[in-house]
Amino acid sequence: MTILTETKDGPLVLSPDQVEELGKALDELRAKVVADLGDRDREYLYSIIKAQRGFEIAGRGLMYLGFLPPFWLAAVAALSVSKILDNMEIGHNVMHGQYDWMREPGLNSRVFEWDTVCPADQWKHSHNYIHHTYTNIHNKDRDIGYSILRMDEAQSWNVLRLGQPLYAFALMMLFEWGVMAHDLEVENIVRGKRKWSDIKRLVAGQWRKAGKQALKDYVVFPALTGPLFFSTLAGNVAANLVRNVWAYSIIFCGHFPTGVQTFTEEETADETRGEWYIRQMLGSANITGNKLFHIMSGNLSHQIEHHLFPDIPAARYPEMAAEVRALCEKYGLPYNTGPLSKQVGSVWLKIFKLALPPALVKSEPSPGVIVMRQRKASEVGV
């Protein structure tokens, strides 16, 4: 693989040797952090779990005062924070195996379950395996648009794409349900490529998990507040919506803003370790913010580092980011980052633009890095 980076002086060519040097440097960075994992990381995770449980207890308790608007709003806020922490800084990261080294039974990636409708085992297949292995590869990574949205010019257009902004809004509001349905491959069911026998086990697991979640949030806890049943029900619905909108926004900003690159199967065939690393960097974007913002995003505000090192505790990404960025500068690679407002605006602009027929939309400029396959002499007739 040869990497060409456009500069004011023309294309900068990274040789295969340079690509592997970059890969080796990233391997060394990973090894350095792994060797340093210990009490600091353990205590950090426990502190986040303690905070998450505290916010949940506060939110559930304040619902008993939900007849007073200020307390209802405080309850919704507390529950929203609890659900965001559970899903993003705890659940997502624990299920990536980031804390398996602790040998804490309840925090092991194989058994952990999170507070959302998607069964953990199905999410780990669609996300940990499919997405992180085939990041941004067309016809491989189903996270490119989640089989609902056209998020890249290489994806086909048809008249149904005109409704894309509405589909995106619906996905944002119902994000946990969209994540749950992702592993079903609904588009393949519609096309007749998947049969009931293929998804029977998945549907059974979803029914069990979603049923428990719905019972907890929409029946049991509202019933416990007696005459405030409907007030509590509305509060739980609101907290889930806040969590959905936040998770959708963070995740989309890490994958789809302007400058994020996609790839073909041909381009990525027989990748070396260094080439895999480069694909992760070109196919991701970061979001700038303060420490609290990074915690609330599950440190997925460092999506570049997460794609490079998915099994490293996410709280380490901020300190790793400086070295990753320095390597990008050294080798002429872009480091896509910006404030939340910029990245969110970029994503929604893309959603609206790619809903239109290609003939009406100006093509996006190249993100600056072109991944080209080296061809054997026999392939070019030499």
From TrEMBL:
Q: Which CDD domains does the record associate with it?
A: Delta6-FADS-like
Q: List cellular component terms (GO).
A: membrane
This protein's record includes keyword Transmembrane helix: yes
- Entry keyword annotation includes Transmembrane helix: yes
Q: What Gene Ontology terms describe what this protein does at the molecular function level?
A: oxidoreductase activity, acting on paired donors, with oxidation of a pair of donors resulting in the reduction of molecular oxygen to two molecules of water
Please list which residues make up the signal peptide.
Answer: none
Q: GO biological process annotations for this chain's record?
A: lipid metabolic process
Transmembrane ranges? 62-85
Annotated Fatty acid desaturase domain ranges read 71-337
Annotated keywords: Membrane, Transmembrane, Transmembrane helix
- The protein's name in its UniProt record: Fatty acid desaturase
Species this chain originates from: Nocardia tenerifensis
